[in-house]
Amino acid sequence: MIAYLAAALAGCAIVLLALWLSQARSPQADLLEARLAQFTESGRAVQSLAEVEMTLPFFERVFRPTLERWGRRLTARNNQQRTQALQEKLNLAGRPWGLTVGGFLVLRIISVILLGFFGTALAALFQVPMPQLLLGPVAGLVLGYLLPDAALSRRMRARQKEILLSLPSALDLLTISVEAGLGFDAALGRVCDKYRNALAAEFNQVLNEIRLGRPRIEALDDMARRNKVDELNNFIQAIIQSEQLGVGIANVLRIQSEEIRRRRRQRAEETGQKAPLKMLFPMACCIFPTLFVVLLGPAALQVLQQFGVK
């Protein structure tokens, strides 16, 4: 009975989590688009606000406001330093599914409840005795608390690697565009049009900030601090110094492009040098014992037969 109840609660938590992640857009944005779609050419609204709200999905009208309210309460009770550190992690990960700090805290609570019930159901299903029965829910609670942080850290590393790998190609296009006569902002726009990756998204955000009136140096510096990629930081600092000193940006871009290509080649050589050492452990644990059995097995059988061992 306990297993069935825990499985039912875990299923409800899974459905709720899937609905929340599938509806990652902001309800204010959806409501605004719905309101704009109801206006005619004369500017007269066809439907009222209540009617427009009723056209939204049930999750947007009921569950999402409740989850966001819980998220705001958890954020208010959380330590300011922890909130700031978590916000930096979300920025480094590219804010997956549009998560905020409050949304991530709610997601962690849902994960704790879900895996806690799953551990209880698993322990009850295998009929574990009572002292060991507590290990199931405890392990589920611990895993549910650590799993969102692990997924976020993995997303951060994957995004930083994506930026690092896409940087040389983007710099080559920037160099060619600037040498062809385009300005730096227009060259960034060409990169955003050409590529669809994390680096292009960051360049697009820089362009949007510049269009809104923010100085280019501040937008670029914030981009470097937001992503924490060494090669990108060096490139941004070189661009900022060229802006401040009045140096030609085309020469700076060409030098930075060659430097990043050289570093990329060095990382490839370093990875190749590490490969034999990484291959040693699986060979010693898996391949060599098999070879020993095949080569030394017949000799060992002959030695045993000589000593009369059957």
Give a structural overview.
It is a single chain. With 310 residues, this protein is mainly α. The protein has 2 domains: 132 residues, no CATH class; 102 residues. The chain is 83% helix and 0% strand. The chain is built from 13 helices and no strands. Helix 4 crosses helix 6, helix 8 crosses helix 9 and helix 11 runs antiparallel to helix 12. It is flat and about 90 Å long. It starts with a helix and ends with a helix. About 5% of the residues have low confidence.
- What are the low-pLDDT stretches, counting only 5+ consecutive residues below 50? 23-29, 40-46
Task: Give the fraction of residues assigned to helices.
Answer: over 70%
Multimerization state = single chain
Strand proportion, as a percent range, falls in under 5%
Helix and strand content put the structural class at: mainly alpha
Count of helices?
A: 13
What's the helix-strand series? HHHHHHHHHHHHH
Spatial extent as radius of gyration: 29 Å
Quantity of strands, as a count = 0
The global form is flat
Mean pLDDT: 78
Distance between the termini: 55 Å
The total tally of domains equals 2
How would you sum up the major sheet? none
